[in-house]
Amino acid sequence: MSDEAEFHADRTQEIFLPAVAPAVPPQHGGAEVIEVAAFRGQTKFEREVIEKVASAAARSVPGVVELGGDVARFFNSVLDKIGLDKVGDATRGVWAKVDGTDVEITVILVISAGEVVADVTAAVRTAVIQAVERYGLHVSDCTVKVDDIRLQDH
After folding, report:
1. What does the angle CA 34 – CA 46 – CA 17 come to, to the nearest 5 degrees?
2. Where are the domains of the chain?
3. What's the pLDDT tens digit per position in 10-56?
4. Which residues contact 10 (CB under 8 A, 6 or more apart)?
5. In this structure, which long-range contacts are made by residues 48-51, counting pairs with CB atoms below 8 Å and at least 24 apart in sequence?
6. Which Pfam families does this chain map to (predicted)?
7. pLDDT (tens digit, 9 = 90+) per residue, 119-140?
8. Class (C level, CATH) for 47-150
């Protein structure tokens, strides 16, 4: 027996298990017709849906003041002034790439001054991943960019 095939307690052992076992569609006809309907198509998510879910999750994290980069926030302030204050707010600051059930997300945010950046970004990443994965998707990457820090008004 080779050295590689033996178990060694002092070495890390890797075991790969699938996270989700795909369901097996039932055969055609008979009493299983109701169950078969679930396997007759696909469920697809549009990018905007994922962006809305991720945006809501990121906004819920303490220390996050606003979402979006400088340009997005500028245009949002202009829209606010002309009475279109809700246009683009739902997805501003979040970009998603959807490939089947795999999702890559980028969140651009403004944090409150005095917050620990690493703590806020980790909390945002966790909240976004949990919120999106509740929909049966897999977040393969969640990048959080801090675009600005909001100073306290005196």
Report:
1. 65
2. 47-150
3. 655 555 555 555 665 555 555 555 555 666 677 888 898 999 999 99
4. none
5. 48/91, 50/96, 50/98, 50/103, 50/105, 50/132, 50/137, 51/90, 51/91, 51/94, 51/95, 51/96
6. Asp23
7. 999 999 999 999 999 998 999 9
8. alpha beta
C-alpha 29, offset from chain centre: 39
Q: Which residues of 95-131 are buried (b: 16+ CB within 10 A; e: fewer)?
A: ebebeeeebebbbbbbbeeebeeeebbebbbebbbeb
Residues 119 and 121: their CA atoms lie apart, in Å, by: 6
Task: Report residue 111 as tokens.
Answer: 């944090």
Token pair of 4, please? 């590689």
Q: Are the C-beta atoms of 107 and 142 separated by less than 8 Å?
A: yes
User: Helix, strand or coil for residue 71?
Assistant: helix
Q: What is the pTM of this model?
A: 0.65
Q: What is the DSSP letter of 29?
A: S
